[in-house]
Amino acid sequence: MAFRDHLAGAFIPSDSVSCIHGLFDLSVERGHDLIVADVTETPGHSAAMNVLSRERLCSVLDVEPNELIDILGWAMNNPQPLNTVSSGPVLENTQEAVALSKLPIPHHFREDLGRYMSASIVIAEYDGERNVSFHRQLLRDDEHVVARLVPRHLRSMLDNARLNGDTIPIAIVNGCDPVVLLAAAMSFEQHIDELTVASSLHDRFYGVPLPFVILENGIPVPANAEYAMAAEITLEDDIEGPYVDITGTIDEQRMEPVFRINSVHHRNNPIFHALIPAEAEHKALMGLPRAPTIKAAVSEVTHCHDVHMTEGGCGWLSAVVSITPNASDDGQKAILAALNGHRSMKMVTIVNHDIDVGNPVRVEWAMMTRWQPDRDTIILSGQKGSSLDPSRGEDGLTSKIGYDATLPPDTDLGPYTSVQ
Predict the structure, then answer these.
(1) Dihedral of CA 285/290/292/295: which sign?
(2) Active-site residue numbers?
(3) Judging by beta carbons within 10 Å of its beta carbon (0-12, 13-18, 19+), is residue 15 exposed, middle or buried?
(4) pTM value?
(5) Positions in the chain short of pLDDT 70
């Protein structure tokens, strides 16, 4: 499967659309539904937006949300080796005289510093380890982007490389199948090669191995991707931001690493994945891969059924978790476990299995009929906060809260059961 195989039913405008605010304005006009448009500035290239909301992702993979969470968790524990092939569609065209401005990299929000790749993954290899992750990338000039690296695996790799005076070979890949994007958004306590998780997911959903080709700098990339760029993380930093991030608020300017792009490969008539930050697609790709780690953590203390990263929490900062408690304190144990399972999370609500975690009305109903604020609330102070939370302190710390809206296992359910 390939990214373009998931674009059926898209709205296709009759005229080309500018990637400078035009794609964003069209998406707003269309209510952020699925769109594929030719791009005015880049003849022969088009762009796709709003491809993978939670509902659409589950639909194209033919699974229910709770099934998808379990499959993601299974793939984390069952990685498969890479299936390397000699050639693939992503190598159909090669741009050795790199000109990034001729790619349909969008400038969506007028508040952003410039044109950004927000759905492109970075595949990096250094000192015997491989990392695959998302990093927004500001188009600086025709051969360079400036990427925001949060303090996770790739930032650690880069810090170690720079201590040795080394650059890091990478690939920047845009327009991947959804299973690759889901794997790239995962985060692990111990090192796991995300490409092996993507391979496992591809085989599970499509019944065939995920093919990879090797770029000239030795980095493997999905053979069916739309774009693959051979690049390196340089020793230089430059200004990145402002940028409208997943919360819909403006993230600040920082000095961030510069990537140099040495070649660009792409398919015939390539389709650029022009993700719009803070919309449903962004929240799904960031939040869904966190649900399995939350479920795994909660399952260690009680019987966990489902996890939903909420829309109001931007698919990142808040979740609802359903359990069947075996003891009276299992709800509070689940709160602590869930917050440990996704450490950027700020709020979690625990409910019984009869509550639909994806229905905010039913979740609030459970709180109003089963939760007592002074008895069933946990507040933690001085916690490490998410850099995406604008309310965190200057020291990066925040407080976190958990609501236990569950009924103990020996409760008479009669007074707590809704008849409609």
Answers:
(1) negative
(2) 245
(3) exposed
(4) 0.90
(5) 188-190, 420
